[in-house]
Amino acid sequence: MTKVSMHEELPFDETATPPRVSTGDLPIHAEIRQLVTEAYERYRGDDSGTVADYIPVLAQAAPGLFGIAVVGPWGRSFEIGDVAARFSLQSVSKPFVFALVCDTLGYEEARLRLGVNSTGFPFNSLMAVELNADRTMNPLVNAGAIATTSLVPGATHDEKWESIRARLSMFAGRELTVNAEVYASESSTNMRNQGIAHLLRSYERLYFDPDEATDIYTRQCSLDVTVHDLAVMAATLANGGVNPVTGETVIRPGVCRRVLAVMASAGLYELSGDWLYQIGVPGKSGVSGGIVTVSPGKGGLATYSPPLDAAGNSVRGQLATKYLADRLGLNLFASVPAEGPPTPF
Fold first, then answer.
1. What is the C-alpha separation between 127 and 111, in angstroms, rounded?
2. pLDDT at 132
3. Where do the DSSP E strands lie in the chain?
């Protein structure tokens, strides 16, 4: 199959229904099914990218795996492809742990301790820590994420870990468990993250023991999920913090707003500007191949495909998300001129 670049303009049939804008609701279920199926069929043969191998166990992922799921604000869903495949949450965990910290400390205190600006550097950059006076920059790169993990509720390692596992399970609507093989593989190769944690501690920007904070962070990245779980987690952020499947309130609406703002500006690392320019929706990627996308008030979109681009983002996932953001009306910046006579304020 012909490869499609993320930067290539997708063909648009002027005689077809025009792309939807961000206001309003998702299309009817039958149309969602049709569009998601089209995206799946369009990109499942693309063999661009490579599976992550800097964590040894991730290199074992089958490159052909591909799944897409959409969950609306009332909990209705449609999914296609390898939707039963389990994979580790990895960096997709970061915005949800940040939400927990914002909910606990308050989002202003979280901003002061962690920062909310993008770095322009790769996700595991030490240079970003050294060049930035505030050191952590934002909670979606590794330095800020480890600092975020160090701030979760709990006085001990086990209490902090249980806070994370329980809250992320609430986001997913089911009990999440750690993939022991992934956790062991990451623990044996996470020297860079250990170094980041100790560097942050030296600058007084880490708030718990650096080795224990790194271990808890490694555990959260090793939680097993499916693409359906990711879509439910994203839909919870889209639904003002209420899980649309369980009806459980996970976080406050004010926290959702701040989490989505950081996802929009830093969720795809140094390519976040390109992502926002082309797709226009808050998103977060992970090196196992998952991507979550949140359209406030409309729902969550998730994709899973292990081959990544040079920045560590799923190739098929980005392509499918770009295709669906236009056709499902997810782009926050899309609008059409007002019709009819003007209404005075």
1. 21
2. 59
3. 67-71, 77-81, 87-88, 224-225, 283-285, 290-295, 299-304
Nearest to 145 by CA among 95, 107, 105: 95
Find all residues with CB under 8 Å of 244, minimum gap 6, and list them: 71, 72, 73, 74, 75, 232, 235, 236, 299
All structural domains of the chain with their residue ranges: 29-327
**Cα 164 from chain centre:** 16
Q: What is the reported pLDDT for 339?
A: 74
Taking the alpha carbons of 190, 191, 192, 196 in that order, is the dihedral positive or negative?
Answer: positive
Sign of the torsion angle spanned by Cα atoms 273, 125, 220, 51: positive
Residue 86: phi and psi, rounded to 5, are: -100, 140
For residue 28, the model assigns a pLDDT of 87
pLDDT of residue 25: 78
Q: Which tokens hold the place of 80?
A: 């296609």
Domain 29-327 in CATH 3.40.710.10: yes
Extract the runs of DSSP E, i.e. beta strands, from 5-54: none
Reported in sequence order, the residue ranges of 87-136 that DSSP labels E, i.e. its strands, are 87-88
What's the rounded Cα separation, in Å, for the pair 196 and 203?
11
User: What is the CB neighbour count within 10 angstroms for residue 307?
Assistant: 21
Query: Is 321:69 a contact under the CB 8 Å cutoff?
Result: no
Spatial neighbors of 234 by CB under 8 A, at least 6 apart, are 71, 292, 293, 294, 299, 300, 301, 302
Q: Is residue 333 within 8 Å of residue 22, measured between CB atoms?
A: yes
Task: Report the C-alpha gap between 251 and 254 in whole angstroms.
Answer: 8
Q: Which residues of the chain have pLDDT under 50?
A: 1-16, 21-22, 130-131
